[in-house]
Design goal:
The protein is an alpha/beta fold and 327 residues long. The protein has a single domain, classed as Rossmann fold, CATH 3.40.50.1820. The protein is built from ten helices and twelve strands. The strands form two sheets. A ten-stranded mixed beta sheet has the order 1-12-11-10-9-6-4-5-3-2, sandwiched between helices. A two-stranded antiparallel ribbon has the order 7-8. The longest helix has 19 residues. It is globular and about 55 Å long. It starts with a strand and ends with a strand.
């Protein structure tokens, strides 16, 4: 395939809204929380969603939340994917600030930082320390453990009883937002520089990756060469106002899209969207519907092998979304 970037034609008439209505119209979604234990010994909760009454086997998407968030992040997105015929699994990671018996020392520290941020007290050296905390690649270890625990729970049938026998572990997708996007990048083959040298966390079991408000080179152990082994299908999503914690521009978030090997690489920019806007983008509700439909088409293309979905990914999205692909 040619190593080139293709700016999607604005003249195409195939709408993402039409795709949404053809895949998920009227579908109901079930949800249940389970308690699991990671390989690191930490107990955590995970929320599963799936299409009610739909026979399996169904593909599985694991979603990793942002730093400080929890398993209830991105409910609209998760429900849309589930309504389209996927099982979604959302672990609550160790950095979550959720006040529960499972809150860790890291989560408590993050809660304190967020209170300072809300009060406008996180400035100067304190803000630099916050960025340094986010940049610590060691937080990735616990998240990888949580993802592994999700997959093992599915194998061992330690999941909602109604899902037993309905998950296809041969069709796995990995998604994440913010630090969860970093988790998805690492599992997708991005190499991370640690104190002990260059590390790879690539998980070949996953077929496709969706990176929402992810990281570019220069932070979190990532550099220009980190993305050279990301060969699996990947969709990057950012917004025109999606700035990084250290002031990086939205274009920085898409540098891995340019630096990874060509072939089944896609990007979407949501007009007006900030870092926390991707479950419900600002403006008309239809923009969020169209974004979720485009994401679903990506999963359908590379987890179900749908040629129609692949065709959609090479057409223009609705107003408010800018799409590119590298073939």
């Amino acid at each position: 395939m040619d190593r080139r970037t293709v700016l999607i034609s604005l003249l195409s008439g195939f709408s993402a809204a039409g795709w949404a209505s053809s895949t998920a119209a009227g579908a109901e979604v079930d949800s249940e929380v389970v308690r699991l234990t990671g390989s690191d010994g930490r107990p955590f909760e995970a929320r599963f969603r799936w299409p009610a009454g739909q026979a399996g086997p169904l593909p599985l998407i694991v979603f990793s939340h942002g730093f400080g968030s929890n398993m209830d992040a991105f409910p609209l997105t998760s429900s849309a994917w589930a309504a389209a015929g996927y099982v979604t699994a959302h672990p609550t990671h160790a950095d979550s600030i959720r006040p529960s018996p499972d809150r860790t020392a890291l989560g408590a520290r993050m809660a304190s930082v967020l209170r300072q941020l809300a009060a406008g007290d996180l400035v100067g050296e304190q803000r630099a320390q916050f960025v340094q905390m986010l940049d610590d690649p060691s937080h990735l270890d616990g998240r990888i453990s949580d993802v592994e625990a999700i997959l093992e729970a599915c194998r061992q049938k330690q999941i909602p009883a109604s899902l037993n026998g309905r998950i296809d572990l041969g069709r796995l997708g990995m998604a994440g937002h913010s630090y969860g996007a970093y988790t998805a990048l690492a599992l997708g083959g991005a190499q991370v520089t640690r104190k002990d040298g260059l590390r790879s966390f690539a998980e070949p079991k996953f077929s496709a990756f969706l990176v929402i408000s992810g990281q570019g080179p220069g932070r979190m152990g990532l550099d220009q060469g980190s993305f050279s082994k990301m060969r699996k299908p990947t969709l990057w999503v950012t917004g025109s106002k999606d700035f990084g914690a250290a002031g990086e521009t939205p274009s920085w978030r898409l540098e891995p899209f340019e630096l990874s090997p060509p072939g089944a690489k896609y990007s979407l920019v949501v007009e007006g969207a900030r870092h926390t806007d991707f479950d419900a983008p600002p403006g008309a509700e239809q923009l969020g519907v169209s974004l979720r439909a485009r994401e679903t088409a990506f999963w359908d293309a590379y987890m179900r092998g749908s040629s129609e979905a692949r065709r959609l990914l090479s057409t223009a999205p609705v107003t408010g979304l800018t799409a590119r692909e590298r073939v």
